[in-house]
């Protein structure tokens, strides 16, 4: 599995400054679709849960039966797409359409994801604090420039990001709340755009190979304006919300639980997809076990 690299030889020719993502580079990335059309991005949180933005479901609130999630692919026109149905849409009850505060939603799938190199959960940050994030990327199938009738992309594009100081961003965006973060890229037009919403701002820490979900693509002023950041839902503020609502739905998200289910017999046998654990730590959250370190054979 390729990790995002800054220079892969490709030209930054697309309008939001993006380049095409490599196969398996963003294995947590999904397309949330309404009536078979791309609506928003999203990220795999666990075998049952997709994390996305609440505003994707406004003004039109479609029933879950009209929604689907496409996963494990960069190309939305691939002839063999893996599609999952959605049974429940959970919007944050304090989502505010006026200022986009609490722009977060969870989708429960109708059957669990079987992880492999192309489908992996992204980690949730364990402690608050943005200074530790060092290599950040956004990806999506959204528009490559802002405008009403701009087409969506069929191939996943990516762009590098840096997190901006909150106070500095607040000077530019007075609607900014403490549940938001700003990310852009100095002197470049790298940005997310319409249709990318719901997808993650994925970052690693200085040392790590693990990818963390730091922010949900939420809103912005136009797209790709130099030195104008995009605004993201600050995920670290929603740990307890995620824990609470996933518990209420009977499919609790937590590290311990995931350890439990991966060892259970009879359930989706994820055990067989993992390499023989050399140490017990390998049985922690699958997001902590990037397949890049795994010796597993891939058909
Ligand atoms: N609200 C947009 C969406 O629904 C995302 C906009 C992000 N804009 C930006 N300039 N970063 O897809």
From TrEMBL:
InterPro entries reported in the protein's UniProt record: Peptidase_S1_PA, Peptidase_S1_PA_chymotrypsin, Peptidase_S1A, Trypsin_dom, TRYPSIN_HIS, TRYPSIN_SER
SMART domains linked to this entry: Tryp_SPc
Domain Peptidase S1: from-to ranges: 15-247
Swiss-Prot/TrEMBL keywords: Disulfide bond, Hydrolase, Protease, Serine protease
Top-level taxon: Eukaryota
Coiled coil: none
Gene Ontology molecular function, alphabetical: serine-type endopeptidase activity
One protein family per Pfam: Trypsin
GO biological process: binding of sperm to zona pellucida; flagellated sperm motility; proteolysis
GO cellular component: acrosomal vesicle; plasma membrane
Protein's name in the database: Serine protease 55
């Amino acid at each position: 599995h390729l990790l995002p690299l800054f220079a892969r030889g490709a030209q930054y020719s697309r309008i939001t400054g993006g380049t095409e993502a490599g196969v398996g580079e963003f294995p947590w990335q999904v397309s949330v679709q309404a009536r078979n059309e791309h609506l928003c991005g999203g990220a795999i949180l666990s075998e049952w849960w997709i994390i996305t933005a609440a505003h994707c479901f406004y003004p039109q609130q479609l029933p879950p039966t009209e929604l689907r999630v496409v996963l494990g692919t960069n190309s939305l026109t691939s002839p063999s797409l893996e599609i999952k149905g959605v049974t429940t849409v959970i919007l944050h009850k304090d989502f505010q359409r006026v200022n986009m505060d609490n722009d977060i939603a969870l989708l429960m799938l109708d059957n669990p994801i079987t992880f492999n190199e192309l489908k992996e959960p992204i980690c949730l940050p364990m402690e608050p604090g943005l200074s530790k994030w060092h290599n950040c990327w956004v990806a999506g199938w959204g528009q490559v420039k802002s405008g009403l009738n701009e087409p969506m992309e069929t191939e996943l594009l990516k762009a590098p990001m840096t997190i901006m100081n909150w106070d500095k961003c607040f000077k530019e965006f007075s609607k900014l709340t403490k549940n938001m973060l700003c990310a852009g890229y100095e002197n470049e037009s790298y940005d997310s755009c319409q249709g990318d919403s719901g997808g993650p701002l994925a970052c690693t820490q200085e040392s790590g190979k693990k990818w963390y979900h730091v922010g949900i693509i939420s809103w912005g002023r136009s797209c790709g304006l130099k030195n104008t950041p995009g605004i993201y839902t600050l995920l670290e503020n929603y740990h307890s919300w995620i824990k609470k609502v996933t518990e209420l739905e009977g499919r609790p998200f937590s590290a311990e639980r995931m350890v439990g289910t991966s060892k259970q017999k009879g359930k989706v046998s994820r055990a067989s997809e993992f390499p023989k654990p050399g140490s017990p730590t390998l049985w922690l959250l699958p997001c902590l076990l990037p397949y890049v370190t795994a010796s597993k054979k891939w058909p």
